[in-house]
Hints:
Elements: H1 8-11, E1 14-18, H2 21-29, H3 67-75, E2 79-83, E3 89-92, H4 94-100, H5 104-107, H6 121-131, E4 136-144, E5 150-162, E6 165-174, H7 176-194, E7 198-202, E8 208-212, H8 214-220, H9 225-229, H10 242-251, E9 256-263, E10 269-280, E11 286-295, H11 297-334, E12 343-344, E13 351-360, E14 368-374, E15 379-387, H12 392-411, H13 415-430, E16 439-447, E17 452-458, E18 464-466, E19 472-474, E20 482-483, E21 497-500, E22 506-510, H14 512-515, H15 526-537, H16 542-557, E23 566-575
Parallel strand pairs: 1-4, 17-20
Antiparallel strand pairs: 2-3, 2-6, 4-5, 5-6, 7-8, 7-11, 9-10, 10-11, 12-13, 13-23, 14-15, 15-16, 16-17, 17-21, 18-19, 18-22, 22-23
Amino acid sequence: xxxxxxxxxxxxxxxxxxxxxxxxxxxxxxxxxxxxxxxxxxxxxxxxxxxxxxxxxxxxxxxxxxxxxxxxxxxxxxxxxxxxxxxxxxxxxxxxxxxxxxxxxxxxxxxxxxxxxxxxxxxxxxxxxxxxxxxxxxxxxxxxxxxxxxxxxxxxxxxxxxxxxxxxxxxxxxxxxxxxxxxxxxxxxxxxxxxxxxxxxxxxxxxxxxxxxxxxxxxxxxxxxxxxxxxxxxxxxxxxxxxxxxxxxxxxxxxxxxxxxxxxxxxxxxxxxxxxxxxxxxxxxxxxxxxxxxxxxxxxxxxxxxxxxxxxxxxxxxxxxxxxxxxxxxxxxxxxxxxxxxxxxxxxxxxxxxxxxxxxxxxxxxxxxxxxxxxxxxxxxxxxxxxxxxxxxxxxxxxxxxxxxxxxxxxxxxxxxxxxxxxxxxxxxxxxxxxxxxxxxxxxxxxxxxxxxxxxxxxxxxxxxxxxxxxxxxxxxxxxxxxxxxxxxxxxxxxxxxxxxxxxxxxxxxxxxxxxxxxxxxxxxxxxxxxxxxxxxxxxxxxxxxxxxxxxxxxxxxxxxxxxxxxxxxxxxxxx
Length: 576
């Protein structure tokens, strides 16, 4: 029996069926009302569990006759199966052979349901029932090739009367690319919707139109997209004149990027990093502007705070540097600009002392210093100290020590007693300091009248002595003359030891900034390097000797700036 003649409206109608797991389950449980099974069809009984209703294969049908029909069939772009009402494939075109990876004879041995994943006999009943009232049935399904690979397809099914018998035609279109495109579009849309950046599309006059994502609504202080479409992007700019420059750049095909000073609908200001690009149609013509905004208000505020803090630090640094320069000038002022005249005309001892010094602080101010305290016409106290560290804190300790020296020199000429009193006063002053502040020092008396050197030492490097016969050695100071650094023990007692002072003797005092100077290989100049340098230049005058010694250290380190303060003092007993 053929379906009744359809009206024009019915002939244009199309029904679409999406095969879903729920529908398959429903199809398996109940027959479709009005569906017919052609006479002679054999249906296998429904198994108790899930299964597929199979249609026994009948005799292979001959392909429909007619050369024009076959030519048309083979020229169709979609894959085409011609089947019996029971789904048996009677003919297939070349496209079907390509889609399903099989030859026409192989395909014609199959039922069309074999190629539809999850399809059962009830699907054909549904199709036949639907075709009584609709010109077409549209199916979306996953198709299985003969090699078991799969592809998504859109299938149009319709009646096809051939040689007086009713057949079904299945037009199958591979929609893999379309599905992938849809998935990409869906992914892209979700990315735009969930983006932390505000994204919107405006027309060439900056009116918001087409799309505004939630982040952009929040940035602009808007509630809905409809509210946004009534706005122009210009109204959110603090400087609306900037809009013309941005539009001109985009119309020239460029991307405009920069930071914008903006305001929300409520007037609340904020800062945004903006990027604007032309929105092009498929022909490459500009139809609008794509706007991307990233709220950088926290970063901008942090940058402003950082700039303010940096400006304050620069001002404080300038003040500190100014103070340090003043301290440096004062520290150099404390250094002897001239040396005291110390001499004797005692028979056999007649002569005088000559002095020379070099001072190189590692910074603007340093913690190394010396002083020459004249206590009589023929006697001086030489004091040299190295305060722990360097810089402003060390310079403060130096100033304190200098204030004590003048007073103590009036109270005693004994180096041991001098150091004992100095340590007591020093410890009392700095006992309440948060950090331990100690200083190495030595106090040495040169008395031309008695011909004696008296040496008291508080952890300071021992001086180098050049005897009249040219012998170079480190000063011999017995244990009794050696004590702890100043400031370590408030109750420490210091004593001095005696040595002979004869004309022609030279004594070189130094601080460890010279011997601990290092080269690129982290090797120190050390005591041996200093002794070798002094030996090479021993015949030179005192100042020339010290200058040459510093030059040798510079050659060794390949640096003109020392890591630590350097202080040198030469005392020569010159015979008259």
